[in-house]
Fold this protein.
Amino acid sequence: MAWLIIETSCSLIGWFFLYVLLCHLNSVGDYEWNCRLVTLIHGILSVCVTAYIGFIAGPWPFTHPGKLSCTENTSLQILALVLSLGYFFFDMAWCVHFRTEGPVMLAHHTMSIFGILLALGLGESGIETCAVLFGSEITNPLLQARWFLKRMGRYDSLAGDVVDLLFILLFASVRIGVGSRMLYCELTSPKPLFIVKVCGVAIYTLSWIFMVDIARFACRKTRTKYRRWKERYKLDDSNGHAVKVK
């Protein structure tokens, strides 16, 4: 436990130092800009490490679900979990201090911290937790790209539409589609502890809350795009420039 506290503290200090360094080097950007850069770096790093764990190092979370928790966490799994735990502590503190996020995102961070602490404290279920981290963070770069496009005034463009479309498709397919399969494997396996299963259900429920918000956003944006296209078509038609296809 002492080593866990030391490793997590080092991870937290590392992410905070990176944030301070970015604020020093990128004085043009504000605090949120630099925090978003830290979030982007964590997302890419976390996806790469957890992808290696799941696809190469193993074990594969979806086969033989009974083996998900019967072995101790590997050193690589612990490294991935500690890196993300330090980041979530940093980002949670930043969001609370600057009051930039709502209750749903804060609940997501809280559940992420609790889930990682649970896996590290138990010394097992590391592979499931890494799989959840992979699914949670794989959409992160697109989410940050969307924010940066907005700040640069380039969101209302083809790039913004492509980022939104990819984000929606990736979120729905990975966090909801693959996440449903992951949760099924977790719940039907006799090996994971009950508290681990409850944590999995809670995180999956949060994913559906996010999915509902994303679906509403997609509907609003689609209606807005259609309305703009219709108005532009009417304007061209009134000017005699509409092209009719027989």
